[in-house]
Amino acid sequence: VPIPRNHGGEELPQMPNHKLAGTLSYRxxxxxxxxxxxxxxxxxxxxxxxxxxxxxxxxxxxxxxxRWDARSIWESNDGQWTAAAYVQNILDKxxxxxxxxxxxxxxLTEPRQIGVQLRWRPQLQ
Length: 125
Prior knowledge:
Elements: E1 19-27, E2 35-46, E3 65-76, E4 81-88, E5 96-100, E6 105-108, E7 113-120
Antiparallel strand pairs: 1-2, 2-3, 3-4, 4-7, 5-6
C-alpha cells in the first residue's frame, strides 16, 4: 500500500514553464518551373520541466531543448504534382521528450531527418 504524499507546491510533471514556437513562411511571388514555391522554417523551444514521479528533485529535472525544421514545397500550376524537400531537426540536437525519473525510462526527440516527397494527383475525366 503506497504511503500518501502531499504534492502541494510542486510543479506539474512534463509541463514546461516556457514553450515557444515560431514559423517563417515565404511564398515566391512569381512562377518557378511552371508552378509555385513555398518555403517554411520553424523553430520551437521547450523549457526545462520535471519528469513524472520525480517529487521535484533537482537532479531529475529534464533540460530544455530547441528544435529547428525547414521545408520547401513546389506545386505545379495544374495542381497535379507536388514536390517537397525537408530537414527536420536541422542542428541534430537530441532532447529528452519525456521522462519517468524513478524508473530511468524516457523518450528522446528524433535525430536529424532529411527527405524528399513527391505526390501525383491525376485529374481523371
